[in-house]
Design brief:
- The chain has 121 residues and is mainly α.
- The chain has two domains: 1-30, no CATH class; 34-112, no CATH class.
- The protein contains five helices and no strands.
- It has helices at 5-14, 19-29, 47-58, 68-76, 90-112.
């Protein structure tokens, strides 16, 4: 029998998961780690290279996707500095990881909170 939405929310909030769910979570994050700052390449990466580098680390998290357009928008909005000669350095990549993880956490949190629908005037 499929678990209902509130059952899923309750499981996340209380940490009471069935064994299959525990195993899925364990498998998806078992090898997950972000690189330490000094492990990030200290050479300039072009936009596509930077995107690929960050996405390879974030792959175990599942649905989160980072695109070159997203990175360009982060630069336009001032979330990360402009690339130097079209290359993203260690600081840029570290900020991309930070932004990606913040978005991932908010997205996960939003999936747990029931959002009211309809007109509440």
């Amino acid at each position: 029998m499929e678990k209902g939405y509130m059952d899923t929310v309750n499981s996340w909030l209380t940490g009471n998961f069935d064994e299959e769910t525990k195993q899925q979570i364990s498998n998806s994050v078992a090898d997950f780690h972000l690189p330490r700052y000094n492990e990030i390449p200290n050479v300039g990466l072009y936009l596509e290279q930077a995107t690929k580098y960050v996405c390879e680390y974030l792959e175990p998290l599942g649905e989160y996707t980072l695109t070159p357009s997203m990175i360009s928008n982060y630069v336009k909005k001032g979330l990360i500095a402009n690339p130097v000669k079209k290359q993203y350095g260690r600081d840029h990549i570290a900020y991309l990881f930070f932004i990606a993880m913040a978005i991932w956490m908010v997205t996960d949190l939003c999936s747990l909170i029931p959002m009211p629908r309809g007109n509440h005037a």
